[in-house]
Structures are given as C-alpha cells and as structure tokens.
Amino acid sequence: MPLLMPQQTREERLAQLLRDRSVRTGEFVLASGRRSTFYIDARVTTMSGEGLSLIGPLGLERLDRRGWRPRLVGGLTLGADPVAYAIALAAHAQGIELDAFTVRKAAKTHGTGRRIEGCFTPGARVAVVEDVITTGRSALDAISAVLAAGGIVVGVLAVVDREEGGRAAIEAAGHQVEALLTARDLGVG
C-alpha cells in the first residue's frame, strides 16, 4: 500500500492518484454530448482503497472549512456513491454524526418507490457530492430530488471540477460549490 511521503499532502497524493489512474487523453464524447481531448474516469480512483482513504478526510475537511455542517452526504448514483461513503466513514472515525444516501436516476417502480435510498430524512441538512462536475447536470438532478423530498441543500462538493461551466450552472441555481481539485490541478483542461 503506497504511503504518503512526509512532504506530500493528502491533496497532492489524490491529484497524483487521479493523474495515474483516472485521467485519459484522446478523443472522447462526454455524457453531455460534448467532445473532449481528455476524460476523467474518477471512479477508478474513488472506488480504490487509497482513493477512499484520501477523499473521506479531504471531503470532511472541506465541508468543515465551508462551515456547511451537513447531517447527510450523497448524490446521484453511481459517481457520488463512493465519495459519500468515504466522507461518512471519515466523519464516523472522528466522532461526527454524518450519514450517506444515494439518489437513483429514477424512482423505483416497485417496493417503496423511493428515489432516494439510504439514511436520507426530510428536513436534514445535505451536502450533495459528485465525483466530477462538467455541466453540473448530475448535481442539479440530485439537488432537485433532495429538495423534492424535503432536504435542505447546504452546498455541492466535488472531487474534480472540469472547469467547463458546471460550477457556474450550480451556483446560478443558488448553491455553493467546492471542489477538492480542478482539471487544471491534474494538468488537463
């Protein structure tokens, strides 16, 4: 298991891990339909043991720095799931009450018919999380579901902001955005 070098911060190590595992160059079509010369498959990092061990404490630190104090973290499945779980686990390790939830892309057509699964409760303060923000569409979809279910959105936390207008779209909808890293930090974009 690679250990952090004494001079390397968690943020620097996460950037290196994303560069090594998640950044691809070439010709790509993004979910938005846009073409790009790079792709950030953050899940290869966010679903790794080392990635989880870095994202949890970093995410928790950024939530604290912003003063958001959520009771829950979560977002649109699949990208947000490991990010939320890592932050919830890091909070638990520090004695902080913070649970996770996930937003389905569509409500279940059976059982409870819920769109939000996990520890979500109406009235809770929620930080919506995301692996990569490009257009902001996934985060805005999760925000819409949380608000419709009675949650209070305190902000959006992303692992990476591609710096392609997503932050502006989310902020234009009235929500603050914090990103652990940007595409520029990863040497792309």
- Which sheet architecture does the biggest sheet show? 6 strands, mixed
The fraction of residues in strands falls at 25-35%
- The overall average pLDDT, rounded, is 94
Number of strands: 8
Describe the structure.
The chain is α/β, with parallel strands linked by helices. It has one domain: Rossmann fold. Helix 1 packs across helix 3 and helix 3 crosses helix 4. It is globular, with a radius of gyration of 16 Å. It starts with 9 loop residues before the first helix and ends in a 7-residue tail after the last strand.
Summarize the structure.
With 189 residues, the chain is α/β, with parallel strands linked by helices.
Map the helices and strands:
Layout: H1 10-21, E1 23-29, E2 35-40, H2 43-46, H3 49-66, E3 72-76, H4 80-93, E4 99-103, E5 116-118, E6 125-133, H5 137-148, E7 152-161, H6 166-172, E8 177-182
Parallel strand pairs: 3-4, 3-6, 6-7, 7-8
Antiparallel strand pairs: 1-2, 4-5
